[in-house]
Amino acid sequence: MKRILLSIPHMGGREQIYVREAFATNWLSTVGPNLTAFEREFEARVGLPAVALSSGTAALHLALHLVGVGPGDEVFCSTLTFVAAANAIVYQGGVPVFVDSGRATWNLDSDVLSRALRERAAANRLPKALVVVHLYGQSADMDPIREACAAYGVAVIEDAAEAVGTLYKGKPAGTLGDIGVYSFNGNKIVTTTGGGMLVSSNPDWVTKARFWSQQARDPALWYEHSELGYNYRMSNVLAGIGRGQLEVLDLRVQQRRAIAFRYRDAFADLPGISLMPQAPYGLHTNWLSCFLIDEEEFGCSRDELIGVLDAANIESRPVWKPMHLQPLYAGCGRYGGEVAEDLFHRGICLPSSSSLTEEDQLHVVNAVRRTAGMGELNELSETTTIQTECLPVAGD
After folding, report:
1. Measuring CA to CA, how many Å separate 160 from each of 53, 188, 229, 309, 356?
2. Each residue of 374-388: pLDDT tens digit?
3. Which of 27, 66, 225, 359 shows a CA-CA span of 20 to 30 A to 113?
4. 0.90 cut: is pTM over it?
């Protein structure tokens, strides 16, 4: 059987039309009609001014630059995340300080954040900003996070790299803080193969980010530069892919959610395996279908399950290793971390591509069921259609 991968691109059909237009008109640089249209269409989707960039990491870097992070400034950051969130802080000379997750959503724990800010305020050592990450397609609980940061004048940057299409109380994740950033990497729910977006309710910041992303070239007949800039602009060709992908985003969300809930329902009779919580306040896209393994109840460890799946030609992986456990950031401060560590040691991401066939998903399901010690007699039949009852979503 061909290898079943974790999360692959899924084209909608119109991407090639926009890309061919770019080639036909020779708009093959970091300017052009697709780029302008992609930004406008994304703005219409989220309701904020937007600038298209070369990656989500570039967007994070510019966001930190915009809020004034500089050498020696401390920045609070979700510890359970991909390393880009912390790296971008260091690009600006900042110092990451990591904040634990909550079990109810796996995202940043607002209670831990509030205690940390009170403690820092008493010591006159408030952070310059907070990078709050929306994990695996689920929004963090932004109301208490924003309230805590507003009380101390701390800027909020939303890392919505994994949360394109995610909603919080009816509003798009990434639009609730001072700046939001998104990723269109090849494994994301929609992709430009490589790219990102920065949005903000402050249009001047978006204009400034666009200026910096084009090497900060001043308006002049010649190449004039009075500020440090970066080569961070998205290309017109990739923006064409993005336009086609954005058109099918709602469908991709439906498909990813259906995959997650088919897994959940297929494992309902198995002890020791549970789907990532679905917070009642918003729309969890389930970009990746993530589960927790209780080794004693399930019958094997998370790592053993990954090994068995690999032998069955199925790609899976652990959830993110917390930043405070990474050798690169071992010396950084942190608040809590035990919850994130537990999620890392027991969490697994299963194949979640929106193009995943029911046959391939059934292969994954049966491999998990065999590993759980249920035996071949308890595998689901190849003719089985996994019925799914989707969880209700706030605002639906």
Report:
1. 14, 11, 24, 29, 24
2. 544 467 766 555 555
3. 66
4. yes
